[in-house]
Design goal:
By secondary structure, the protein is an alpha/beta fold. The protein has one domain: Rossmann fold. 40% of the residues lie in helices and 16% in strands. The strands form five sheets. Strands 3-4-5-10 form a four-stranded parallel β-sheet, sandwiched between helices. α1 crosses α7, α4 runs parallel beside α5 and α6 packs across α8. The longest helix has 22 residues.
Amino acid sequence: MLGADLREALAGEHELILTDVVGGFLYLDITDSDRVLDVIEECRPDLVIHAAAYTDVDGCERDPERAFRVNALGTRDVALGCSRGWSRMVYISTDFVFDGKKGAPYAEDDVPNPINHYGASKLHGEEHVQNLCDRYFIVRTAWLYGEHGKNFPLSILNAARSRKEMKVVADQIGSPTFTADLALAIRDLIGTSAYGIYHITNKGSCSWYDFAKRTLSLAGINDVEVKPIKSREWPSPTQRPKHSVLGHLALERLGKDNLRPWEEALADFVSRLDL
């Protein structure tokens, strides 16, 4: 989902070497250490955007070994390859490195404290990047949706085709982020040498319940009842942060905090769908 939007955002200005575990791109499984190092050495990229991850949060909780193999060790090997070839690196991380207890937007220098295996594995990935690379951008983002993959608003719209009632969690707060907007922000960021940790999301915040209601409204679906529920009422093995809104202080200091509000981005996304 993010990869497809990055490809579109970057193609006009950069020569792209596209990798994937499937499809017509250069084959690269980041859990294969030798393969990772070989590909980076052979291609000698100026910059690597590491967007591969195991993002199934419940899957990570059920299989933490896989989560760490992909998100932590896989990232370690990408960072090692970048350090050997002197490539700059972008690592896509997550709001789930925080526990959600601050009650206010998290700053880039707040101390992480993940409360699930997904967040912990991604934090270990961050640490590998920081320890192995000199020139890196760690980009924490949240609640991604886009035109090219499975995501929350599409799931809500699909469910509305067959159901007149749905229950959605209302006590988790975050910032929905359109991958097309995130890709453009990353494009702008890599044009600088201001390395470090950045929080990049669409502006504003809401609950999953608010997100679902707004999605249905924008799609003109008014005959589906959305009922708010508590996190404990949703069947999941994973504890999630209750308030994981990310502050954009680093982007503000760089003069690049220009992402639009989440409501505007969502309206753009829904307008692109064939409903």
